[in-house]
Amino acid sequence: MNGHRARKRFGQNFLVDRGLIGDIINAVAPQAGDCVVEIGPGLGALTAPLLDRLDHLHVVEIDRDLVARMRRRFPAERLSVHEGDALAFDFASLPRPTGVRLKVVGNLPYNISTPLLFHLADAAESVRDMHFMLQREVVERMVAEPGSSDYGRLSVMLGYRFVIDWLLDAPPEAFDPPPKVHSAVVRLIPRPASERQAVDEAVFARVVAAAFAQRRKMLRNTLKAVIPDAGFAALGIDPTRRAEELPISDYARLANWLVAAGAEASAVARGD
């Protein structure tokens, strides 16, 4: 690995399979004028072939040794290196021409992949598409359907925001050092506002989090603090169902009922 020892605390497993690297670059399909940001470039397995097709590339890297390598290897006019934690990085702030949205790519560290996906969902309005290498177990949860054991908060929150496609599989030997798990490449494309049914997405997020906080309990119990049986009845949703049984659209309906109920209560208090 060119003298660099993978650091466990950063979740470093470097992609080395040239065939898989080529498949990922083809899936990303970068064009010269695109605004692309790579998360965790590591030793540059994706960085170099991305730059073969791009005028300029942004990378976000937390390991200062790898940051120094990147700056020595690539000229600043081709590569902007942002040193720091991707979990705290403001992706929407990256400079780009008006109307141009970000393409995001990366071999994400497994130890922060879920919170990083939630963080990136917050920047979805600025994103054109995202391609990530992830632990296969995480991808299974991302694409899970209602009623399956893998279906959970991640499935609902990402499925609400993105169209998600499982593209490629990656065995442990595609990396150095090999991880103890299998991996997969996934594509996320933000849904247009017209497909997102929640009138208040913060309320939607709170309803989903509350429902899955105790996923084996009935919705009547997990949401009793905010939605009475009358609310379930008005929506035609069985309150004895469990969180993993409810489709994304029903979570949006529950959130919208809660918003409407709150607005009605406020109107009554004002005497409207």
From TrEMBL:
InterPro entries linked: KsgA/Erm (IPR001737), rRNA_Ade_diMease-like_C (IPR023165), rRNA_Ade_Mease_Trfase_CS (IPR020596), rRNA_Ade_methylase_Trfase_N (IPR020598), rRNA_adenine_dimethylase (IPR011530), SAM-dependent_MTases_sf (IPR029063)
Transmembrane segments: none
Domain of life: Bacteria
Domain Ribosomal RNA adenine methylase transferase N-terminal intervals: 20-192
Compartment(s) of residence: Cytoplasm
Chain sites annotated for binding S-adenosyl-L-methionine: N13, L15, G40, E61, D85, N107
Keyword Cytoplasm: yes
Family according to the record: Belongs to the class I-like SAM-binding methyltransferase superfamily. rRNA adenine N(6)-methyltransferase family. RsmA subfamily.
Name of the protein: Ribosomal RNA small subunit methyltransferase A
Organism of origin: Rhodocyclus gracilis
